[in-house]
Amino acid sequence: MIKSIRMKLFIRFALFLAAFIFLVFLLNLKYLPNYYVYKNESIFYNVYEHINEINSNRSKKFKKILMEIDKETKIGISILDDNSPAIKYGSKDLKKKIDKDIEDLIIMKMNEIKIDYVYGVFKYSRKTFNSKYIFDTMNEDLSKSEIIFIKALDTGEILLLRKPLDEIIDSSKISNDFLLYVGVITIILGSIFIFFYSKRLTNPIVELSDIAMNIANLNFSKRFKTKSKDEIGILGNSINLISDELQRALDDLIEANVELKEDVERKKQIDEMRKNFISSVSHELKSPIGITRSYAEGLKYNIVNNPEKKIRYCDILIDEAEKMDKIVKQLLSLSHLESEAFKLEKSVFNISVLIDEIIEKFDPILKEKKIETKVITNQNYFVNADYLMIEQVITNFLTNATNHIDKGKYIEVRAQSVGEKVRVSVINSGENIPEEDLRNIWESFYKVDKARSREYGGTGLGLSIVKSIMEHHQEKYSVVNRKFGVEFWFELSLINKE
After folding, report:
1. Helices 307-338 and 462-473: crossing angle, nearest 10°?
2. At what angle do helices 231-300 and 307-338 cross, to 10 degrees?
3. Which of 96, 145, 252, 448 has the highest local Cβ count within 10 Å?
4. Tens-digit pLDDT profile for residues 444-467
5. Rounded to 5 degrees, what are φ and ψ at 262?
């Protein structure tokens, strides 16, 4: 089964070419003599008119003129007597009397000859006359046939014009033989030409088919390259447009799918964070509430009578109440920061001055814990930020540093320019944070050392508040382990102030 469009085109063209050559051969073989007779009718009539004209003024050169006409047209000319079919003049040395077959024809057609003319093919072998030029050249022998033209002249004499068909029959045979050879050569050369040319015609179609298959497989990288403006070129451009639109639609779909996955993942994370948050809040409040309840019941039922122990019980209750108050305030602060209603109240201020003010507030605590503090601010750094929020960030960093300091008891607060930013760092001596905890410490209620956090009342909310504040400012923040401790830092954009 032939599936290639190139092979189909080649076979159909070869068959069409062979059929066309064969049809031309048959038409030439069957109708060429008929056509020859038909085309000669006007020539015979023109010869008649010329002879009729010169016959009216017959001169001594009359016979010579007839011979010249015969030589030029190859038509035999005979002028017959009007009373008997005897030849009076001829273009050749003809016998005085015409053939009995022609004589019978003239007698039979005399009335027609006087009024009009008789023209057709006369077959001597059968003594038949065909005035319609219709005869079967494939089955009949025309070697003894002639084309005859008979008409009366103005002088009353009868003009007989004759031309043998032998010449046209020979020419027809030669023509058919030549046409047969030319036809075979034409079929061979034409088939070779169409075989190679069909490749040029079908290559764009094959290419379009390949591109369409790639599109079906969601591969839109292939393009149809053509400069033609025919139907194939228009189709190629249309497929290119379809490919572009499908690529754009697929990209949009992939992007939407990625966003959908991210939204689903984000929803899962938010849901997980919500569960962890509720669990953490419950856990953080559970201990102080339980302690408060136990000591309150002890006071209620006079479990202790010693006044000093009662004061100790009251101090514990106050301490646990302060812890719960701290947790609630930080939760409210974080909730406020993460709400859509929250907006930064930015102003221009000197962050170096702010650092000094915060260190001054922390001075009693630092002295009480005997912590050595070093502040490095080489110059004034002006920023445009929310003053209270940045104060909260530095305060949380310092609180975190004092709570996690080791026996070295050293804290360093530094402000330095980094390009167009000022970086504020709080460094404390102490143990490094494990690598697996570095990313998680910014999440709510996350504690690296839960036991120690319980000792100093840490809630795990301080760094999450820092994260929210810095994200609102759209500035960088991070934590880095150092050789002797840990560094927390954040950056703000500098403002030139004269």
Report:
1. 20
2. 160
3. 145
4. 666 655 444 445 445 567 788 888
5. -65, -40
